Amino acid sequence: MKAIYVIGAATLVLAACKKKGCMDETAINYNVEAEKDDGSCEHLDLTIPASYSFADENGNNTVAYPGQTERLNQLEEMTVYMKSGNAATISADIMKDMFANTGDNGAGNFTFSSSKQLKDKCFANDVDQFETWMEDLATASIDHSEMASSGQAGTLTTGESTYIFDANGVEHVQLIEKGLMGAVFMNQALNVYFGDSKMNVDNSNAVDPTNGKFYTEMEHHWDEAFGYSGAPVDFPVNKEGIRFWAKYCDRQDAALGSNGIIMDAFTKGRAVIAQNAELTLRDEQIEIIRKEWERFCASQAVTYLEGAKDNFGTDNAMYLHELSEAYALIMCLKYVPLDTRVINFTQIENLLDNTIGLDFWAVTLVDLNSAINELNTIYGF
Question: What pLDDT score was predicted for residue 99?
Fold first, then answer.
């Protein structure tokens, strides 16, 4: 059996009872299926590190997710380019080249080289939709010097911020950026890397220690899911550089306690794998992460809807901007796995197609309140 050490371990030690209904009051009953034939309890000591840091018996770091970091960097730079459409005409072809990472550098539009891409990790059924939105954004940018209004694409400014909208008041920058956060980052983490094909793999042997890959296949897949969160290894103590989903997790922390829930589950699940503990405990952490990720996504959508409501009729730039963000995050909810998702697909489609729709100039306060109330009811906010 491999020996794995945790770095900066906290003093927390959890005892798990492998028998349902165990009478040992010092044990935590995890309702594990693999119980002993004689009905007795088996205690598993699990040491949880203070941060997402793990090493093998020789002190070699076993945490690595460079591909995820590169994709986060790609979306970051792609978003910068898309936002430049508020002051200049931009190209759909350039956005598509960045999406597919043409030539391993986005056809020269990335500041770095990488063999990774966003497109081949995107939820396949939605690739065409994202590329259509890129075309729509490029078309809207042609009118960047115009003032946006109902039926007229253009820009609107609030304070020091300027946004580019299409003729229906939709800010496609938000649909593409946050949509890809769902179709790539969320989908890959919650469905792919936490799925059976990535979790039911070898956890005994290092992948390639000669070339610095000291992690097992299972450890690496768990790390890759963590990499898509956009959180640093010492989050939430350290919030510098948090990106994408970690940013929204943090924004909803005051209301949900999401930072601790997500980070504790990621770290505990990795500790289970590293210490060869009962994998049912790992699977419990997967369920916690899936549920909390959905929860803070939905809560942030409500926050944006409230912001749109507050700016309705007084600041069109901020109203349309926040409504575009809310729309994109509601869309992301469909990427949460079916077996844990609270909202159903019909409810998502109804919110997007009927309650809100894609003519944001036609949305009313009644519509905004209806969307807010529906999400609050579904999630118990």
Answer: 98
Contact indicator for 146, 165 with CB cutoff of 8 Å: no
CA distances from residue 82 to 93, 137, 139, 279 in whole angstroms, order as listed? 12, 8, 12, 43
The bridge status of strand 9-17 relative to strand 28-29 is: parallel
Are the CB atoms for 125 and 177 separated by under 8 Å? Answer: no
> Cα separation of 259 and 264, whole Å?
8
Give the pair of three-digit tokens for residue 34: 């693999």
**SS3 label, residue 147:** strand
Contact 355, 371 (CB under 8 A): yes
Distance separating alpha carbons of residues 82 and 291, to the nearest angstrom: 31
Report how far residue 157's alpha carbon sits from residue 316's, in angstroms, rounded to the nearest whole number. Answer: 9
Distance separating alpha carbons of residues 127 and 142, to the nearest angstrom: 24
> pLDDT tens digits for 298-320?
999 999 999 999 999 999 999 99
Element (H, E) at 295: helix 279-311
Rg value, the chain, Cα: 23
CA–CA separation, 152 and 327 (whole Å): 20
Distance of CA 342 to the CA centre of its chain: 16
Q: Tell me how far apart the alpha carbons of residues 82 and 333 are, in angstroms, rounded to a whole number.
A: 23
Q: Token digits for 149?
A: 């209004």
113 vs 289: CA distance, rounded Å: 31
What is the secondary structure of 299-315 as a DSSP string? Answer: HHHHHHHHHHHHHTTT-
The model's pLDDT over 154-197, given as tens digits with 9 standing for 90+, comes to: 999 999 999 999 999 999 999 999 999 999 999 999 999 999 99
pTM: 0.90
Sign of the CA dihedral with 187 first, then 188, 192, and 195 last: negative
How far is the C-alpha of 77 from the C-alpha of 75, rounded, in Å? 5
Helix (H) or strand (E) holding 158: strand 154-158
Tokens of 188: 């890959």
Local structure of residue 101 (DSSP, 8 states) = T
CA 138: distance to chain centroid? 26
Give bridge partners of residue 45 from the DSSP assignment: 15
Quote the CA–CA distance of 86 and 317 in Å, as a whole number: 12
